[in-house]
Amino acid sequence: MLADKQSARGGAILSMRAKQIEASLAEEASGSTFETADSVPPSPSHFTLSWLTSALANGVAGAKVLDFKLGEAHSGSANRQAARIIWNEAGTNASLPSHVFCKYSDDKEIRLWLGVSKILKQEILFYQEIGPELSIETPDVYHACWHPRAWRSMILLEDIAKSRGATFCTPREVVSRTEMESVLNQLAMLHGRYWRRLGAQARWLRTPHNVISRFSECFDYLALVRTGLERARSVLPDPVMRKAHLLWSGYDASLAAASTGPLTLIHGDPHIGNLYRTGEGEMGILDWQMVMKGRWSHDFAYAMITSLRPEDRRAWERDLLGFYLERLNNSGGGSLTIENAWMEYRQQSLHALLGWLATIGAGSEQPSMQADETSLGVLERAGAAFIDLDPLAALE
Questions:
Q1: CA pseudo-torsion sign 36, 200, 121, 154
Q2: pLDDT value at position 310?
Q3: CATH hierarchy code of domain 165-394
């Protein structure tokens, strides 16, 4: 069962780890230098030419970084900053990356949120062990490392805005049926490839119920949801507010269902803000921070509900479900009946609502993961899906 408040153990873990992070931040501020790729710079401002060469040269003889230029820093569920890399002749001739996207954990609140929840470790292991072998449309990873005690991390990714002409999706945009089919095709290839075939990764990948249970124990996730209900009241339909007292137990049942049965590798967070369009019109998926092992339907429902306008979702969802199931079967996944798959889809539709209520309900101890405008746009769609799909009835 999901905890309905922060536990004494969770509070103790949070307090202990906060002190460790504060000590690490003080140490980092004292002027530590980072020269080789086995060390972990807290932010791009700590980069050195030798560290970048070690992380990015990929064994090319004689390649050296001569200089680098940093873009504007941003933060949300992680810290982010683009960097331009200037190579010597050997690096340039080898076409080593000249633009990288840096994703890192520098702020105390981000380290606590990602570290306590164990998301930080999973993301790094994903980029080290799984990311390089994926064949779907997603950014390439060049280097990923983390410091397990300080809970700092540094991930160097392909800057797809430069390399692929990518533009990034928001809830204000209309996703066409063809574009949604492209997203679902990517998810089907991912799910099919790892369907009952996770192997060694199954030891460190967590399930949706594992992840939210940890959040609940340490951060009082239910309190975030309750705050979110108040902050999002203006965009939520009346049935959501009337049934608010049933949401938590329903969410527990939904997450349990997403964490049992035939499990596969799931993205865990394929909302519209983690989708992009390439310059050639392909749809792609980025940000593997919430990667997990779980049911296909957890990804499918989340992508459908957050990406499509309610009127388009209602018109296309049964056909799109059939499209996804066909692609899943062709990619090595299970053969599912449309009736059972539809029931799973309804059951998993609750995650879009509860997850984004917690996001907009974040307090001072959590990072501000999304702009309120983005959260409200997604929650308006999730509220409509709550009425249309009636997940609480599907979970009875």
A1: positive
A2: 98
A3: 3.90.1200.10
